[in-house]
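Human:
Class, as today's exercise, you are to examine the entry below, and be ready to discuss the fold:
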Amino acid sequence: MQDYGVPTLGPSRAVLCDFWEHTWPGYVDDTFNWLLANNYHPVLAHPERIPMAQGLEPHLDRIHEEGVLLQGNLRCLTGEESDLSRERARAYLTEGRYDLLALDVHRADSLSGRIDGIAVASEMIGADEADRLTCQAPRQLLSDQLGR
């Protein structure tokens, strides 16, 4: 990473990360540790979509405690991804595990389902908390003022 720089979100120190393994890979911890040690703010995107069948939550709790932010995918709240992703996303949201919620749009044809997720989040945790996770916290993160 030192040779090429770290791709951050705009001029912030935030680094969006994800992985798709069926077990927790060692490189994830090494990467997060390096980023944190070098004053970056790693953000694990859509942890509810990680295909680990079991044992994911203890890892998420540990890295979150260490300073890794968790960003939920709004579309997962609607069930358009998978039943497991929906169950996890709704549980993580009500348990307060998420630091941020995002649309995670890759194609225009998936936008409506992602916007529907905002309504689901508002219904589940209230409009003020949904606004904090979708608008306020991302702004704070991009300005490097997100308190942990």
About this structure: The CA atoms of residues 74 and 117 lie 5 Å apart. The radius of gyration is 15 Å. The helical segments are 26-37, 56-66, 74-78, 83-95, 111-125, 127-142. The chain has a mean pLDDT of 90.
